[in-house]
């Protein structure tokens, strides 16, 4: 059995092929001969001098069963490090986006004749701070026809340095000691060869209180030389299939939240659902919250998080889970390998089949400020609940929602007020089990029956066709432009989808029955999203670089192509955030056989009086989207035009060849033949 410092698994899918080749490249260029059967004399001397007293060297066991599969790899991934600024340049700002981390891959492992001692050959890579910004990439929400717009994506410089290592690992003590070498472009700008020693302390029996791996990477070069660097402190999470649950087995003190709104029951394996759950949740604070009594990360963190990332680490068939909760001060995606101790909680949870919710106990990482080697797990007073709503409405479109709170009293240190969180993940929607509750249909005084005259010769999009989705532009009273999209959410009681959907029940939904119209009208709900790069303002509030989401529901008149809905969106005035449902969205669809000049037209209007702080001037909605049949006709016309051009050019070339043959036979008629053939050629063009 392998010790718990690394998990012993097959090559995982999250390791990208380019990164694997990068590791392979490092191992080949490093001066340490790590891929041969015997160490070279320099490596052996370094180990004898610096490591032998930590994990004594031992001969290999020649039993064939001691050789792991060649396709297997030991891995250490959720991690963080401090130091090493001399060998890997870091930006000044370090937060959830700029998360540094360390990878350790043991590419070869052999048992030795000493019980519990394993020889390792590995690579270690320090990856510096990096940031992934994807503010304009909304394709996971959109899935629009014809165009999948993907805006500029920022990939800042991601410094890294790698080392090839050899050493031993004691399963009994949990100690790892390895020596090796690598190269780094130092701050001086000179490429230097570095000799290093890696020392790790790994838990032997993994529980939530004994789940941290700590260690250092130190220089073995001369202290006064250019290759020397200060020690690098390493912190990581131990991942073990033999993890022992301690908090959940005792039950959750104070219980989990209960209420009348039950979530969906998971009819398939719980782990299969939560294994793919890597969502980023938007956090929702109470209106009277402030930074002092609302921060789940404690008073030492100077920012109030706005999002939380969920990552499942372990899961059992009983529904017990080990989870990482990462917090950030932006809604952008958090790096999946981040393990910043100040921003991370470690939680044990269990799926409650009776209440259809996940209940969890979360703990903080503590004592890391002086040195990562002193880090420990404590303060397990944080509770979390999570469920999958069974009913959607205009005010609740989340596929996942939950709460996080403190079990402490308000006067205790570490207490914070209850925080809600929610996320939308379309792949978790089960059309056969989800219902939509229309609460605003029939109450829209601003949505009278369309005055458009019904024309039997004109037809408009069907409620379940892709023509109901469209890109849009919004223009405010100052002629500033924002761009986005609109897509149906539900029509009647049927989830709008054009692609096959794999749901929580594990079933595949592809056929959606047609809804019933009443007097030509159909209940329908929409998801509308827009953003702007420029200084786009609504009622004086700047919406530039913000993603605005509007949930709307109302009536669609298929006979006239008119759509009128009540909408809701989040508004904020002087730190007071509220859901404003006093808006009306009106859209007029062009006929399916419309000419190229006909476009989607509409408005977004406020029903509030002008004296209300949430009132805004009308936003003019327009769209240049075209219907599927128009796109097909356009493609057919382009194909015909290309064919005609090719035919005419072919004839022109043929006539030129014939002209040359004719002139060659009748040189006395050169001038008149040229004139005639040029006239014919121009006529063909």
Protein model, in words:
This protein is mostly beta strands and 685 residues long. The chain is built from 7 helices and 33 strands. It has a 10-stranded antiparallel beta sheet with strand order 1-2-4-5-6-7-8-9-10-3. Strands 11-12-13-14-15-16-18-19 form an 8-stranded antiparallel beta barrel. The protein has an 8-stranded antiparallel beta barrel with strand order 21-22-26-29-30-31-32-33. Helix 6 packs antiparallel against helix 7. The relative contact order is 0.08. The model is unreliable at 7-37, 69-73, 92-97, 131-157 and 499-512 (pLDDT under 50).
Distance between the termini: 79 Å
In the sheet with the most strands, the strands line up as 1-2-4-5-6-7-8-9-10-3
Secondary structure class reads mainly beta
| Assembly status | single chain
Proportion of strand residues: 25-35%
Q: How many structurally independent domains?
A: 4
Low-confidence stretches: 7-37, 69-73, 92-97, 131-157, 499-512
Helix-residue proportion: 10-25%
The helix tally amounts to: 7
Mean pLDDT across all residues, rounded? Answer: 78
- The strand count comes to 33
- The whole-angstrom Rg is 32 Å
Protein name: RING-type E3 ubiquitin transferase
Subcellular location: Endomembrane system
GO cellular component, one term: endomembrane system
Catalytic activity: S-ubiquitinyl-[E2 ubiquitin-conjugating enzyme]-L-cysteine + [acceptor protein]-L-lysine = [E2 ubiquitin-conjugating enzyme]-L-cysteine + N(6)-ubiquitinyl-[acceptor protein]-L-lysine
